[in-house]
Design a protein that fits this description.
alpha+beta; Rieske Iron-sulfur Protein; Naphthalene 1,2-dioxygenase Alpha Subunit, Chain A, domain 1; 2 domains; seven-stranded antiparallel β-sheet; four-stranded antiparallel β-sheet; 17 strands; about 25% strand; disordered C terminus
Length: about 375
Amino acid sequence: VFAAEMERIFLRRWICAGREEQIPFPGDGFARDVGSESALVVRAENGEIRAFHNVCRHRGARICEGPAGHFGGAIRCPYHAWTYGLDGGLRRAPGMEGVAGFEASQHPLLPVGVARWEGFIFLWMDGEPVSFEETHAPILARFARWRMPHLETVQRIDYEVRANWKLIVQNYSECLHCPPVHPSLVRLTPADSGRNDLTEGPFLGGWMELRRAESMTLSGRACAPPIRGLPRKDLRRVYYYALFPNLLLSLHPDYVMVHTLWPVAPGLTRVECAWMFEPDSAARPEFDPDDAVGFWDRTNREDWSVCERAQRGMQSRAFRQGPYSPREVLCAAFDREVLRALGLSSPAEWPSLWGAGPCAGRPHEERDCSR
C-alpha cells in the first residue's frame, strides 16, 4: 500500500515542496526527496523557479544531497563534474570533447513540473502534470486575504512521527480528540465550535471560533498585529485546511502555521512545521513568536503522541476499524480521496487496502459538518 501511495499520490499529484522565500536569488536552490525520488528546485537567472530530477545525466549520481544552498550560475555534479545551467541545459561534460555523435543539447537535466501558489512551490514528480489551475481551482483565491506570498517564515520545527502520514491528516481533520488530548487548546477555542465548509474532495477543512482568546498562543493573546486586511469575522476564527496530499494550512488572525508531511516509511513521517508572520510585525523590537510557537509545539507533540499510539494499535491483528462519529466526517472524506487517488472505488476493496495498516474504514452516513 505504501509503495502504491508514493507512486500514485506523491509522484503523480501536486505536492507542496516549500516556499519561494527559501530561494530568493538566482542560483539559490534546494533538494526535496519524495520517497526514493529527489527533485532539485532552483531559482533561474530570469527569476523563474525551475525543478529537475536530482540525477546526473552521465552515470546517475545524485547531484545535490544537502537541503539548501547556492549554485551560483551553474549546477555541477560532484562525481564527474558534468555541469548544467540553471535552465537545466548541459554546459560541460569532461571527457566527451570531440566524441563522435555526442551532443550536449541531448543531455539536459530532466524536468519536474513546477507550480507556484500563495508563495508555496508545488512539484509534480512523474509524467506530464495536470494544470495546477485545474486541479486547485476551488481554492485558487480562497485564502488570498491572508496575503501569504508576503508573509515571512520566522520559525520552523521538524518532527519525526512514528505514524503513517494518513493518521496525521486524519488527526488534523477532527477535534473530537481535543478535550482529552489538548486541554490548553479547548480553553481558547471550544472543540465543538465553528463548522466545516470544504467537506468532499482533495481540500477539506473549516473554522473554529476564538471565544476565549485573541489567537492560539500560550497566553491567549495575539503575538502580532492582525494580518492586514482581514475582515472582522476572521479576527475571531482560526481556519484549518488539509490540502491533499501533504499540506496542512492553519490560518490565524495574526499568523499562518503550515505543516508539510513527508512519508518516509509506512510507520514513519517527517513533518515540517513553520510559522509565518507579516514582515512588519517580525521587524518590531518587541516581536516574540514564542507565544505561538510554544503553544503549537506542545500541541503538535500531543498530536504526535496519540498518532503514534494509534499506529501501534493498528498494527495489531485484532484491529478492526470502528465507525466514525458525526464529528469525524472529514476523516471519512479523506479516506475516500485516498481511495480515489489509488484507483479504488468499491468498499469491497477496502480491507486489502487498510487491513492492519493505518487508516480508515467505511464512512458513516454524514449527518453533520461540525469538526
